[in-house]
Amino acid sequence: MKDKKIKNIFVQGGIPPDKIATSIANHQSKTHIGAHAIFMGQVRADELEDKIVHAIEYTAQEQMANQVCEQIREEAFKKYDLSCMHIYHSLGKVPKGEICLFVFVSGAHREVVFEALPIIVNEIKAKLPIFGKEIFDDQTHQWKINQ
Known about the structure:
The chain has one domain (10-143): Aldehyde Oxidoreductase, domain 3, CATH 3.90.1170.40. The protein is built from three helices and eight strands. With 147 residues, the chain is α+β, with helices and mostly antiparallel strands. The radius of gyration is 16 Å and the shape is globular. Strands 1, 2, 3, 4, 5, 6, 7 and 8 form an eight-stranded mixed beta sheet that branches. The N and C termini lie far apart (40 Å).
């Protein structure tokens, strides 16, 4: 039995708008799909102790994160009647205002994608070994706490 290839979810830097647009456009020919739901996480310019976040630098245990993400995908496909799912997460430095997480789910009907999407996003945030270092305008930094 051939091993299933684990998808690489990582993108270097911010996730470009054209990657998101292409991902959406590629589904026009899939006419059995009637609904899509999208989550996009964006780097905020949070103010912490009188400092403004300028960027977040993401690192990860990539192989483990990809494996855990594959498990999340498999569980979601078993639980929900989804047609398609795409997940991308940034690595490296992502400036404020840019997209760092893109989750795109598709199915025949809106109810299933509306139900599945927040659960998938919360699982990603809770389980993937991805770490963010907040870099402030003065170039000091601290490890980010996921919320």
